[in-house]
Amino acid sequence: MKKIPVIQALLPVITLLVCVVTALIVKGSGFVADYSYAMLLGAAAVALAIGMGRRCSRKELADGLRTAARQTLPAVPILLLIGTVSATWMLSGVVPILISAGLQYINPPLFLLTACCVCALISLLTGSSWTTIATIGVAFIGIGTLLGFSPAWSAGAIISGAYFGDKISPLSDTTVLAASSSKVNLFVHIRYMLITTIPSLIIALAVFTIAGILMPLSAASTHTSMTAALADTFNLNPWLFVIPACTVTLILLRVNTLFTLGISSLLGLIGIFIFQPQIIAEIGGGDLLHQLAAGAHILLTDTAVATGDAALDELVATGGMLGMLPTIWLILSAMVFGGIMMGTGLLRRITEAFTSVLRNRISAVGATAASGLFLNAATADQYLSIIIGGNMYRDLYHRLGLEGRLLSRTLEDSVSVTSVLIPWNSCGVTQSAVLGVATLSYLPYCIFNYLSPFMSLLIAISGFRIISRPAAASAADEAPGLECPAQLTD
């Protein structure tokens, strides 16, 4: 496969990008979100045709698909449970009471700033951007919509904060994976990331503050009427805060992700029966058997609640597990694309071309950042991208006399935080589905996420805190490789 021309190896990715850009121009971002799976499978077919033409063996192809499946399939049950958490937290009154509190106590011009900071704190404490966005992020989307903010702006602030906290949390599996893939001590890695992460966050917070002040917002009377409509529809009992408190406690204790989400869904479902019996009665009727069927209905499929306000009706509608199926189909299509790219050797040929021309610090960091974005698009999975990126560049950085922590930081800056910006990446697909905002719609407003790779390159150009030395790894930086997380939590 080494003899294959690089342009031929790039052809599947070029095909995918051309399809996405053409669809975006002709049909819009909604069409891209709805038919990304078809574009991915079409690009996978191109990759397979090239591989078969180069006489790729079935074993190599199966190995590639197996590797992609091992990283991707654990996301499927998590996505199904995220659907149940979103449904039960909404209909139990957890999200409505958070929205009501936000409408009363958040200063509207500072909403974007507040959303970003709160999501950053929660994600830092829990180590999980996915869980943060699926819980408190959903509440902030509702608050922002009722205050008059564009959902794209709200999603940008939520995602920026959640990914900042995830990136510097020692509890995050992507942070652990980036450090271990580069053979760097975890806390050395986190401290070194602050050099690029803090400036990116400060710029993002400044943008969100200015945007919030300049943006025209809904009148205070509208907020009052929305709060009243929520109070009329839901029993906003303060005991509802026990449900998210239990979830945060389980996450802090590093309890298995599936178990945590399952317990959160169960608590939310119990909360519906305890605090919102009128909703259960409206869906299932008066007798116990029909009410139990109503509970199953809430978990499995879409549920609508009439609040008397069209905007609120749309906001509190839920999709359950079935609502996550389009997301799952897209992730499985991305898995096939990434697996074929690896199994046919096309991805390996591209990565060899990336590294063969690098001669100094700036080119190494620039190539790492660029290939991080490329790997997020080619593998559609941040975990595979981090692992492949670490393996690609570890020896090169050693040969150029660059520290391992520079590689681990650049991987985080270019892979972990940009995965959510790729419409077919597992992160982009998930957050788009959870927040109800198309990836290409919120992309321009994820200030922190797309600033991070540029900040990494800027710091590399300046040479700040970057030590070049003979090709020998520093004992202070090095740490034994940690096992790749088997359970997806971000």
Indicate the mean pLDDT. 84
- Rg of Cα set: 23 Å
Task: Report the structural category.
Answer: mainly alpha
Fraction of residues in helix:
over 70%
Terminal Cα separation, in Å?
A: 34 Å
Tell me, briefly, the overall form: globular
The number of strands is 0
Low-confidence parts lasting 5 or more residues at pLDDT below 50?
A: 471-489
Q: Summarize the helix and strand pattern as letters.
A: HHHHHHHHHHHHHHHHHHHHHHHH
Main sheet: strands, sense, barrel: none
Portion of residues in beta strands equals: under 5%
Number of DSSP helical runs: 24
List the helices and strands and how they pair.
Blueprint: H1 6-26, H2 29-53, H3 58-72, H4 75-92, H5 94-105, H6 111-126, H7 129-147, H8 151-167, H9 173-181, H10 186-214, H11 220-233, H12 242-252, H13 257-275, H14 277-284, H15 288-300, H16 310-316, H17 325-343, H18 346-355, H19 361-379, H20 382-399, H21 404-416, H22 426-435, H23 439-442, H24 447-462
Describe the protein:
It is a single chain. The chain contains 24 helices and no strands. With 490 residues, the protein is mainly α. The longest helix is centred in the middle third of the chain and has 29 residues, at 186-214. The chain is globular and about 70 Å long. 55% of the residues are buried. Mean pLDDT is 84; it is low at 471-489.
